[in-house]
Amino acid sequence: MTSGRDLLADKVAVVTGAASGIGAGIAEAFAAEGAKVALIDLADEVRAERALAAVEAFGEGALYVRADIADEIQVRAMADTVLGRFSRVDVLVNNAGIFGESPVATMAVDDWDRVLAVNLRGTFLCTRFLLPQMLERGSGRIINIASQLGQIGGIDAAHYAASKGGVIAFTKSLAREVARDGVLVNAIAPGPITTPLLESETEQWRERKLAELPIGRFGRVGEVAPTAVLLASDAGSYYVGQTLGPNGGDVML
């Protein structure tokens, strides 16, 4: 796969959770390959402006929309705003997510509900309101950011693992529904990546996870973003319902 600001030329992409971490890395990688990018997040003004400026620097066109992806009304409004600006969306990256730590025996029900609402319901809602225009054109890519914990589970992270396992199942089901209509749906299940999400976890959790990784280190955002570029580009045209795993060997299939 070659680079040169042309792999995604003339494409319009929506990336949720785009103000930091993996989402920001994907948004910048898309812009570097010629895409116009709509960044969706709930970030504070400083982080939002920084993320938008990083994408605008590539000169292809960018938009920031503040929205809670777990809220149907806000997602509908976000979709209308993006389509009003760019007329279409070619690539949707469902990346926004939250993490929490708690054993199931003492987990607050509200914590379970919020993690599932953002990570799984949010993925559904953004897809629900941006998929129809892809189907109308007979073309589109949807990339859902899952997690290796959705494949192997995680101690004190059952709500997160369940949400990401749901994302993987949703990816496979949707891919079967829409592939023949020209919309290709895949997932990326990264291992632990150095992002604000990882930094929010306890030192004990990070040390335990690091000890489990065959590669012996956490990953970098730049080691995940190229996978998204692949799936969004013509080079990824035969990937359907797959879960690609830049995970440092935490999952081996």
Keywords:
253 residues; alpha/beta; Rossmann fold; seven-stranded parallel β-sheet; 9 helices; 45% helix; globular
Structural summary, described in words:
The protein is of the alpha/beta class. The protein has one domain: 3-Layer(aba) Sandwich (Rossmann fold), CATH 3.40.50. Helix 4 (109-137) runs parallel beside helix 6 (158-178). It has nine helices and seven strands. A seven-stranded parallel β-sheet has the order 3-2-1-4-5-6-7, sandwiched between helices.
Task: Give a short summary of the structure.
The protein is α/β, with parallel strands linked by helices and 253 residues long. It has one domain (12-244): Rossmann fold (3-Layer(aba) Sandwich), CATH 3.40.50.720.
Topology at a glance:
Layout (H helix, E strand, L loop, with lengths): L11 E5 L4 H12 L3 E6 L3 H12 L5 E5 L5 H15 L4 E4 L14 H29 L2 E6 L3 H4 L5 H21 L4 E6 L7 H4 L3 H10 L12 H8 L10 E2 L9
Parallel strand pairs: 1-2, 1-4, 2-3, 4-5, 5-6, 6-7
Helix pairs in contact: 1-2, 1-9, 3-4, 4-6
Computed structural class = alpha/beta
Flag low-confidence runs.
Answer: none
Number of domains: 1
Q: Tell me the distance between the termini.
A: 23 Å
Overall pLDDT level: 95
Query: CATH H level: which superfamily?
Result: NAD(P)-binding Rossmann-like Domain
Number of helices: 9
Q: Write the H/E string, N to C.
A: EHEHEHEHEHHEHHHE
Shape: globular
Report the strand count: 7
Strand content: 5-15%
In CATH, the architecture is 3-Layer(aba) Sandwich
CATH topology term: Rossmann fold
Report the biggest beta sheet as strand number plus sense, adding barrel if it closes. 7 strands, parallel
